[in-house]
Amino acid sequence: MELYHHIFKTNFGFSALEFKLNPFQVNKIYLPQKNEKQIKAVLNKDSIYGEDEKANQVAQIIQAYFNGQIINHDQIPWHLLPLDNYTELQQKVYNTAALIPYGQVKSYGSIAKEIGKSGASRFVGSCMAKNPFPVLIPCHRVIRSDGSMGGFGGGTEMKKKMQKMEKKGKT
Q1: Is 139 in the active site?
Q2: What is the tens place of the pLDDT at every residue in 20-35?
Q3: Do both 10 and 72 map to the same domain?
């Protein structure tokens, strides 16, 4: 099955998503890079450029987010994100993180407790580091218990910028 990519511009730079067709599903979302050349450099080398109405729909949600619009859990087309490709425990982590409200944060440890695995904060951190759907599963809202940022695929400066944008836009 062929893998496609769709590149789009956001207020934070150029972002992309990879997807499969028949049935459509998002394979991965890429956080913004400074320019189109940089985003192309991080894409899966086996993917080819493609257009699709559902890819455009997901891209528009991500663009809206980076434009400062509040994106709620119920606005995300979850049926297009194949979480069933992950273990039950990973799914619990992703589903719990997905429910963190806009403008709020939770610690890795608190998510571990919520999924019934106290002491598994490193596992939660590992899941967040491998999160295939950043922004839609808001790993940027997950921090260390001491309040520090922790890691982030887009870099800690982007994580801080995203959290700052959310705090400003939160009503």
Answers
A1: yes
A2: 999 999 999 999 999 9
A3: yes
